[in-house]
Write a structure and sequence with these properties.
By secondary structure, the chain is an alpha+beta fold. The chain has eight helices and four strands. It has a single domain, classed as NADH Oxidase (3-Layer(aba) Sandwich).
Amino acid sequence: MHVDAAIASRRSVRGFLPKPVARETVEAILRVSARAPSGTNMQPWKVYVCTGRVKEALAEEVSGLYLAGATEHRDEVQMYPAQADFPDEYRARRRKVGWDLYSLLGVEKGDREGSRRHHVKNYLFFGAPVGLFFFIDRVLEIGSWLDYGMFIENVMLSARGHGLDTCPQAAWQRFHGPVRRHLGVPGDRVLVCGMSLGYADPDAAANALATTREPVAEFARFHGFD
């Protein structure tokens, strides 16, 4: 797949087929993704991949905790501002994509139970056969987190080249404790995000979501081209 086609076709898939993905394919994706740039070539990524019974056990525990309303679990890092602190342009985009998705799922405004029924699918990997968890050493700072973002983008683009789709999931942040326990992650590493990996289900309603992007003229300023 041409790189531009991979970028343009990448999307957050929220419904996967049960078709398995070979370990060799996942290894190939991670191998090429590790060509991502990083400051002084530190390569700060630590990846934990799960499938089969390990993934199912983790999904069963965490989805149960979520549905039970577990309140003792908290994000380990502040990923986003509080809702009230978002500038209007970002708040508007968040609301639009949320309601666009919920409209496809038949979840009406104020339907908290319907929202919970959808959100819990995060912890079931949206039915994907493979789950990935990205951890970073706790001592590293924002530069390495930026490097990590480029690595994760490579994973998603390489997956497209293999005919696969992904969904990066900050939702797993809240349940970093169970993830550590099931996957044997040491405490000196911080969970960046999880990711579902597999073959998109063309019949999943959520996969009809088409997100928009701002035109270049809105976010870029050019100087010296005249």
